[in-house]
Amino acid sequence: MKRWCFPKLGIAEYGACAVDVDGSCRRSLCRAQTRPVRVGHPALGQYEPSTMAEAGEDAVERQVRAYNAHDVDEFVACYTEAVVIEDAEGGVLMSGREEVREHYGGIFGLYDLSAEIVSRVRVGAYVVDEERVTGFPGGEVHAVIIYRLDSHGSIDRVRFVC
Questions:
Q1: Predicted model pTM
Q2: End-to-end C-alpha distance for the chain, whole angstroms
């Protein structure tokens, strides 16, 4: 029987049966007896999928609310001290919470920015948002933003694709 393992998603697949991290079957017709899959990522520390989803939901959603409220203190509190923010090709735009504070503190004072989440996808420690940002002099910006969360649920890496 073939076995596929997707530890970032908390799913293992045995033959035609998708099995949750606790060993329970995800398809009602299958009665597979399987062992649990240990879920985690060595660089991020071990985590439980439900904990990460809840923590990720809080950090990403909080930073969007803070962005729309132009609250730089609440905004930077969602990030780790060593956060790295990159462009689409992986070039570093900002590194560290203080650079994030300086950059966003400046633009919050200049523009009446507002981000609308068009769609959101969560996979393990990642949250991917499609956003439409208004308030820039050049008009609306359509972007995809990829957030990675650490084991405590704080945002530690961001990549902008726009």
A1: 0.66
A2: 43
Domain hosting 95: range is: 45-161
Residue 81 · residue 94 · CB < 8 Å:
no
* Co-location of 19 and 73 in the same domain: no
Distance, CA of 90 to CA of 105 (rounded, Å): 23
Among 146, 144, 145, residue whose Cα is nearest residue 125:
146
Angle at 118 between CA 116 and CA 122, to 5 degrees: 110
Q: Would you say how long the chain is, in residues?
A: 162
125 Rama sector, left if φ>0, alpha if ψ -120 to 50, beta otherwise: alpha
Higher pLDDT residue, 36 or 93? 93
Q: Can you tell me the distance from the alpha carbon of 59 to that of 55, in angstroms, rounded to the nearest whole number?
A: 6
Task: Indicate if 20 and 57 belong to the same structural domain.
Answer: no
* 3-class secondary structure, 153: coil
